[in-house]
Write a structure and sequence with these properties.
Elements lengths: L1 H24 L33 H29 L2 H25 L3 H16 L8 H4 L9 H7 L7 E4 L3 E4 H17 L8 H17 L13 H18 L11
Antiparallel strand pairs: 1-2
């Protein structure tokens, strides 16, 4: 219970920190967020129904959350990311990226084992050992050069691997597109990480805040997507479709009968 409470407190501190730091000390993007630059009438023919087959019973909430996330991204998170890029040398950015990549292999290892993929689990374990030792706690990635590529796994993919359906589409605050299965997987992975606690962050709120803040910045930096860049009034539906199809594809190629795995 203490660890769960700590996780909730840390999330609150993290969001508050983003808000205060991003809004008070960094330059703001001028102008309001523009959801679309072209009208729906350019695309929609009268009397024709258009639909994409994604189960979205909470669409009202999801669209509101999508708009909220777009504003948070533009006015808080992206300014922090731009400041990070400006003040941090590329060499340091690469070391930070490798460090978080190495930590994520703990999640990859656990889920490969849960999917009973012995060879993949062994390779991921070897990656962890090589990168943590020869790569100096993961700051470098010698394992990839040694023929041990990173293979991403998460508990949402594990559930899908065993036939659990996606469930309703869901847009998470700050985190973006998801669904009920993947959200369950995200929570499970987070609890597993907190339980294992490889960096001994538990009961050290200041370390947790620093760690998760830097992780959020580094994660967003690697994502090229920018809200409303397409100018399409259907961006919400497009993202919903692409996310759902991407996750289904990732699950399909992991099924035993396919005999293929994504790196």
């Amino acid at each position: 219970m203490m660890r769960k409470a700590n996780s909730i407190n840390i999330l609150g501190f993290l969001l508050l920190g983003f808000s205060l730091f991003g809004c008070s000390t960094l330059p703001q993007t001028s102008g309001p967020v523009q959801p679309a630059r072209r009208p729906i009438s350019e695309y929609v023919k009268p009397g024709v129904q258009y639909s994409i087959d994604v189960y979205d019973p909470w669409e009202g909430f999801n669209r509101g959350m999508y708009t909220f996330n777009a504003g948070f991204d533009e006015y808080v998170l992206l300014p922090v990311v731009y400041a990070y890029e400006k003040i941090t040398p590329d060499f340091v950015e690469d070391r930070v990226s490798n460090f978080f990549s190495n930590i994520s292999d703990v999640r990859n290892l656990l889920n490969a084992a849960l999917q009973l993929k012995g060879e993949q689990a062994a390779q991921t374990f070897a990656r962890l050992v090589y990168n943590t030792t020869f790569g100096i706690v993961g700051l470098w990635d010698p394992a990839t050069a040694m023929g041990l590529p990173k293979r991403r796994e998460d508990f949402g993919l594990t559930l899908g691997y065993y036939g659990i359906g996606a469930g309703p589409y869901l847009v998470l605050p700050f985190l973006g597109p998801s669904n009920l299965r993947d959200t369950t997987g995200l929570v499970t992975d987070s609890l597993a990480s907190s339980t294992i606690d490889p960096l001994r962050l538990n009961n050290h709120p200041e370390r947790e805040i620093a760690y998760f803040t830097l992780e959020a910045i580094e994660t967003r930096q690697k994502i090229d997507f920018r809200y409303y860049e397409t100018g399409s009034p259907f961006e919400y539906s497009q993202i919903r479709f692409l996310y759902s199809r991407m996750r289904q594809f990732q699950i399909d190629v992991r099924k035993p009968e396919e005999g293929v795995e994504l790196p």
